[in-house]
Amino acid sequence: MNVVRTTDARPHLAHTARAIAAPVSRRVFFGLSAMLFVASAVLTAVVCLSMSAAGDMPMPGGWSISPGWSRMCGQTWPRAAASFVGMWIVMMVAMMLPSLAPTLWRYHEAAGRLGSARAARLTVWIGVGYFFVWAMLGVAVFPPGAALAALDMQWAALARAVPAATGLVVLIAGMLQFSAWKARLLACCRGALSGPSACASGGAGALPMEARAAWRSGVRLGLHCICCCAGPTAVLLAAGVMDLRVMTAVAVAITAERVAPNGVRVARMIGAAAIGIGVLMLARTVVSAVAANG
Q1: Under DSSP, is residue 65 helix (H, G, I), strand (E, B) or coil?
Q2: Which long-range contacts (CB under 8 A, 24 or more apart) does 16-22 make?
Q3: CA 288, 246, 241: angle at the middle one, nearest 5?
Q4: Is residue 289 scored above 80 in pLDDT?
């Protein structure tokens, strides 16, 4: 008697379904990330161009101060701060999302065993925690930035020193790119978030705990990122926080050192360029001062 052996095709079908669903999930993730990037970039450009149309205030020393650091007519200081922080968050999304998206995707892939919807929610919490830290940085930098802008408008001698100070900031930021501290933080940012730490609990009731863990992971990543980006962020704040050219250059530099195959080498190349620009800026301020005194 012949015996007909049958095999259970369900594992094979499940594997095939996952293989088909994975590229779709990847396309959806990066498609949504691209849409968020474009929206934030367009909004940032609109805000910066509107401020540029309002007119920067010329200052002694041949530079101009952005209206983003001061109150508009009839605006209170709390509203001015809220407006700055709102613009700062949108700007940070546009600048940091290209380098953050691959990290978020690695986390999403590792969390995929929880189910696509659950993994998506945890990935969103990572992003929320990450950009919360950047928002807090905007809250922290506005008061000293606004105070310094007010002092520049009152004291001409201080205003004349700003171009030299900006060149010095760019020079120091370039030197930081060669430090072991920078290399260590960059390696941490490039290899962060392999997966959710609380995935083992598994139950639906554990989701709030997992969400909190994901949010804390995003906060930790944001803190590492702020430290790693201290030099480029200082350049952004010193050279023109509402200047589209400066923002684009800083965003390209941060993205390149995060996603390039050899991030440390790219970071050092960026540092060499920053050092050269800083030296040129300092030399120009010296020539301008000599010409003014002569």
Answers
A1: strand
A2: 21/116
A3: 90
A4: no
- For 87, other C-beta atoms within 10 Å of its C-beta total 19
Q: What is the pTM (predicted TM-score) of this model?
A: 0.84
Contacts of 209 (CB under 8 A, 6+ apart): 198, 201
Instruction: Give the C-alpha separation, 267 to 172, whole Å.
Output: 14
Alpha helices in 191-262 (DSSP H): 207-228, 230-239, 244-259
Q: Coil, helix or strand for 261?
A: coil
Distance between CA 265 and CA 272 in Å, rounded? Answer: 11
Is 63 in a helix, a strand, or coil?
A: strand
- Pair 219, 129: CB distance under 8 Å: yes
Token pair belonging to 282: 């300092």
Residue 204 has pLDDT above 60, yes or no: no
Helices 156-176, 230-239: inter-axial angle, 10-degree rounding: 160
